Every structure is written in C-alpha cells, then in structure tokens.
Amino acid sequence: MMAPGMLYSGGSGAFNFNGVLNQKQRVMSSSSSSSSTIAKEHLGSLFVPGCSSSYLGSSSMVSFGRVNGGKRSFFDSFDQEENEADEVGEYYHQAEKKRRLTDNQVQFLEKSFGEENKLEPERKVQLAKELGLQPRQIAIWFQNRRARWKTKQLEKEFEALRNQYDNLKSDYNNLLKEKENLRAEVFQLTDKLLLKERKNGQLSLPDFQKHSDASPKETMADPISRVKMSNVSARVLTLQQQEDLSSAKSDVLDSESPHYTDGVHSSFIEQGDSSYVFEPEPSNLSQDDEEKFDKTMLSTANLLAKAEDDDYRVTSSNVSYFGFPVEDQGFGFWSY
DNA sequence: TTGTGTTTTATTGCCTCC
DNA sequence: GGAGGCAATAAAACACAA
After folding, report:
1. Is A123 a member of any domain?
2. What PROSITE patterns does its record include (predicted)?
3. Residue A330 lies in a domain
C-alpha cells in the first residue's frame, strides 16, 4: 500500500522503521510532491496527548519514503492493524492534508521554547517522544518559532526607534518655537531702541560701524545674530531700566507689527505631523562669531549708555540693529 | 457559502561551523 | 562532508466578513 518513493522521515519508537532520516536525505522536489501524510483521523487514535513514553505516530503531516526496499512500509503495518484494506486508500488520500499541532502540543512546545529557543538534539528527541511527534517536526516548529520571535523583536525595536525619533522631533520643534520667541523678543527690543532713537534725534556711529553698507533689515535677518540677540535683551533692559518705557510698551511692544511679526512667521519652519523629516539648522557659532558677537555687544552697550546722554546722537541706521558691520558679519544666510 | 486575508506547518536551497 | 540554522516560499488550515 505504500506508494513508491515514500519515505518515513523520522520518529522513534513504534513507527521508527528506518531511524531518523538524515536531513540531507530528505525527499526533494520530485519525491516530495509525491510524499504523503498520515490522516489525523487515524493516527489521532494512536496519539495520546501528553503521552510521555513512546512515539505513537503523528497527528501532523508526515512524509514517507521507500522503506526496506519497499517490501514493508508503515502502511503495511497500519493495514494489518486496521485490517481494512479498502480504507487505506482513503487514509492515503487524506494523508495529503497538513495537520496542525494540538493546543497541548503547542503549549508544551511554547513552554520549552521559553526556557531555551535553541534546540539541542537530545532535547529534540525528548520533546518528540513526549509529544508524540517526529524530531524533525520539533525542529521545524522551533525554527518557525524562532522566525516569529525574530519578527516580533524587529517590530519592538522599530517601535522603540520610532518613539525615540518622535521624542527628538518634539524636542526639536519646541526648540524651534523657543528660538522664534526669542527672536520676536529681539525685534521688540529693537523697536524700543528705534523709538528711543527717534526721541533723541540722530546719533553718530562707532568707528567700526561707520562703513557698514548693510541695511538694518539685512543685519537683523541674520539668524545667528537674532538668536544671539536674545541674550542681548537682558543687557538692554539693564541699560534702559532707568528709562520710562511704559508709553513705548503700549504703543510699540505689544503691537502686532506686520513688519516684524511677518518676518518671524515667514521664517518659521513648520513641520507637518505626518512628516518624519526635519533638518537641523546650522546654528553653531564659530569662535570668530563669538568674538564678533562680544565685540558687538560691547559696542551696543556703550552705544546705549551714551544714548542716555542727550549730547550723544546716533543715526538711525546702526543702533536699531546693533550695527553689525558688513565686513564683520560673515554669515552667508539671511533667510531660512 | 464563498472569497479573502492571516497563521501555521513544511519544503527548499544556501550558508556556516566543526 | 555532515549537521544544523536561516530566509524565502508553498500550501493547508483557519478566521471572518459579506
């Protein structure tokens, strides 16, 4: 009754006619297509879930091959046991089906996998005996289980990385907003100075600023300068603390000046929520930049101090934007 | 009932290790 | 060269909506 080319591919105990099949002796494409399986309905009667003593057959698909020169096969034995030759054909037909492991078997295998996801040969044989499966089935189950575990791990890692990215993106956006707030503050303070300048009339330029061709707008458009100006605000306020700015505040400070607010908003980089792309701006200041900044700050402080004196007058083209001279700017970007 | 998507079992071919 | 692992894949079994 055994089909030619069928080979029992493993197992030990009652049905192990030929020993465990060498993996490299597996029936390949031609013979595997003609390989057969044992019907669950019939082997199921031989398999006792939880049986821990001997291999009684499989409730899952089993491949068969030629055994003992084809003169005796598992099915020969099975036929004798059943003594119903006409039913064997039905078994054979049903044997093409793939069978799933029972819940108990899966549970047992899961527990074993939890203890160790690698399978040593001894453990494989032991599990096969205990579950009534072929050692090869145990190996396959562990192999597939490792693949599923690996997939889950990759999903977890991906999720963790995405969370990390989202947090970084959030931090970046917060910093961006903070930067814009500081920039707006600088513009407000600049307005204060403009107002004061108009009140006091024209002032003269410090020497290093006299040859500047940069327009006030261009000078303050420099992003680095603007960010740095946020630090200026404290100094400016200190210098101006003796001055009554209350009127200026009501007129200028809280005004939604289109000129400046537009500048702020137009340069704000808005990132869509769905976008995972952000590009950090080049905001690091070089040593030269730092020196220029300090120099400018010193100059500005002096300028402001002098502005307190009615005898000292400056022109409108420098104080309002802290007078970065063109040759000292060194920043090649005005908008971003 | 049937079509469709997902899960599970098993095969195949290649690779590495001893 | 054999044994075992892994990725890719096939195919049966299963779940479920229409």
Report:
1. yes
2. HOMEOBOX_1, HOMEOBOX_2
3. no
Please tell me whether any atom of strand B lies within 7 Å of the Cβ of A112.
no
A101-160: per-residue pLDDT in tens?
A: 999 999 999 999 999 999 999 999 999 999 999 999 999 999 999 999 999 999 999 989
Does residue A36 reach within 7 angstroms of strand B, measured from its CB?
no
The residue segments making up the domain with residue A154 are 103-189
Inform me whether the pLDDT recorded for A229 exceeds 60. no
Q: Which nucleotide is nearest to A119 (CA to C1')?
A: C4
For chain A, the domain total comes to: 1
Instruction: State pTM to two decimals.
Output: 0.47
Q: What's the Å distance between residue A89 CA and nucleotide B10 C1'?
A: 23
CATH number of the domain where residue A126 is located? 1.10.10.60
In chain A, % helix, strand, coil (3-state, to 5) comes to 60, 0, 40
Asked if residue A153 belongs to a domain, the reply is yes
Q: How far apart are CA A110 and CA A15, in angstroms?
A: 25
- With CA of A37 and C1' of each nucleotide, the nearest comes out as B10
Query: Nearest nucleotide to A97 by CA–C1' distance?
Result: C12
3-state DSSP call for residue A315?
A: coil
Question: For strand B, is any atom closer than 7 Å to the CB of A140?
Answer: yes
pLDDT of A166 above 80: yes
Say what the pLDDT of residue A323 is.
Answer: 33
Q: Quick check: A137 CB within 7 A of strand B?
A: yes
